Amino acid sequence: MRLSFGSTSVALGLLLLAPPAMAADQLKVVTSFTILQDMVKEIGSNHVEASTLVGTDSDPHAFEPTPNDAKNLAAADLVIVSGRGLEGWMDRLIMASGYKGPIVIASTGVPERTMVDEEGEDSGEPGKVIPDPHAWNSVPNGKIYATNIIAALSKADPADAAYYQKAGEKYLQQLTDLDNWVRQEFATIPKDERKLITSHDALGYFADAYGLQFLAPAGLSTESEASAQDVAKLIQQIKAEKIKAVFVENSMNQLLVKQIADETGAKIGGTLYVESLSKGDGPAPTYVKMVRHNVTLMVAALHGQ
Ligand SMILES: [Zn+2]
Known about the structure:
Layout: H1 5-17, H2 22-25, E1 27-31, H3 34-44, E2 48-52, H4 67-74, E3 78-81, H5 90-97, E4 103-105, E5 114-117, E6 128-131, H6 139-156, H7 161-187, E7 195-198, H8 204-210, E8 213-215, H9 228-240, E9 245-247, H10 254-264, E10 267-268, H11 287-302
Parallel strand pairs: 1-2, 1-3, 3-4, 7-8, 7-9, 9-10
Antiparallel strand pairs: 5-6
Helix pairs in contact: 3-6, 4-5, 6-7, 7-11, 9-10
The structure holds zinc ion (ZN).
Zinc ion is lined by residues 61, 134, 201-202, 275.
Pfam family, one: ZnuA
InterPro entries: AdhesinB, Bact_metal-bind_prot9, Lipoprotein_PsaA-like, ZnuA-like
Protein name: Metal ABC transporter substrate-binding protein
């Protein structure tokens, strides 16, 4: 639309006279990754402006902050991270940005769990036992995250605390319903048949919560191309352990995946979202939708569908 000079100045005048826009009242929350950003939005709605450092479909372990990220942080009212070593890059970024405000660790209160850092991605020492950072993947832990976020928003923005409490309770109820649904879904599969192979190491808390067994694909690392010997090993493992479903990442080519399926009868599942959400039009744009998507794929594969 073309505006004449006259109407432009009228519009500007109105803008100047208007009370400070919504944005000025919004609590500026910077989160480390998309799952936290979603929870802050669910609980804070238009009382918060929630941004994320690591974007959709990205790896929260490995992140190269830009000067823009430091600028964004410097202007924040509140910073929320997941913790337990997930955001190894965060301390340096906080330092560089000069941010002096509160830093809330959303996983506070989640029971401890350890994992083996197979490739040394987090510790720099392959094979080292480290705290498992992937706490959000079980819904009971997701509720702990949400509870911590409700408290953090209320403290940082007391004027809107009543809103955060109310919206937060509603969100917690959604997560309770989600948790019940996940349990009902897995209850359709005998416990000793809830065995999947996945190259994701992010599902430990999830497996503990829902009585699943996740086995790492024998001989396959995410770094290298699979050799014929690796594939033979994997096929043997699937047969020996009577594994019904295999979820592999894109490091394996589709022909190979099909060969494994044909030779073992195991169902090859789709793409699981475990460390980041998808874009808005993808299958996992929110935490709740992410869990639903993953469980739907797993249960279908376990039923051989
Ligand atoms: Zn991870």
